[in-house]
Amino acid sequence: DRRFWKAQDDQSHVINVDQAENLLDDSIYAALLEVACSGTLDMLFGGPPRRTFTVLRHFALDVSGGGPRPLRARHGPERFALEGLTDWELRRVKGDCILIFRMIFLQLLAEVEARRRRKMSPTFLMEHPGDPEEYMGDGDTDYPSIWAWPEVEFLMNVLGLKKWEFDQGPLGHPRRKPTCILSNREPPDGLQGLRGRSIVPKEEIAEHVGGFRWATWAAWAPGLKNIIREVLHESLDRGKAYAMIRRLDRGFLDHLRRDHVPYRRDCRACLAGYFRGHQHRRVAVPDGWTLSVDCVGPIKNGLSEFGPQVKYALIG
């Protein structure tokens, strides 16, 4: 996966912080905070753990003991941890909460620094399971979900964040997997509202899944990974283009806003236009969507494919 997320050029770098690192380590998070405060962050994306949120904790599984029990409520203080949890369960729940808010806080810092430097806001993508209340059709169960948290609702209103809601099954996941992504960008075409079962053949699912596995459920679908990688490369390219524009002088920026009028010798677009000097007709541009015609010449010792000694040319 590290090679999959690699940037396309040597000027940009993708920092992979995954299960190989301890995300709760303060020294690792301090390094990420330094990046967020540096003003060089173009995109922040990831999927905080969902193990303490999974809807499967509310169903009896065909395993010894019936499977893992619920650890959270949907509303109130117990959305962070139910009472009566063991020390091991409590560490899991608190650790997941910390990772969620750490990711959000990184984006907040990067946003503030981008505004201070008058740069574009970094792209933000936070993936998490969709709200079970919207697809389970069971109003009697108090399913936990970060999309029911008032803190997330507050951030959406303050930062103008949007939710991408879709199923990963049509994108190549072995299960349907309703998913929601919190982002400050509009969803790509065709993704919002994409619903359906998995397109993976049943034989392949049985071969690779072999029953329920946490890693299989949590993994991103190949199609979703491709979409996020495209957004990543677009964000990196957008950041570099914006930085180049910011380095231009104000007079040149005004020249671009006026659609390259008047002509400037230090403008590549103007030079590419060539014969944009004095126009011989009285009305330079009488109307939009018209073909402007001008002549050039006399040219000394002119040569053309239609014959020698060409002195004048008609440009349209």
From TrEMBL:
<protein>
    <submittedName>
        <fullName>GIP protein</fullName>
    </submittedName>
</protein>
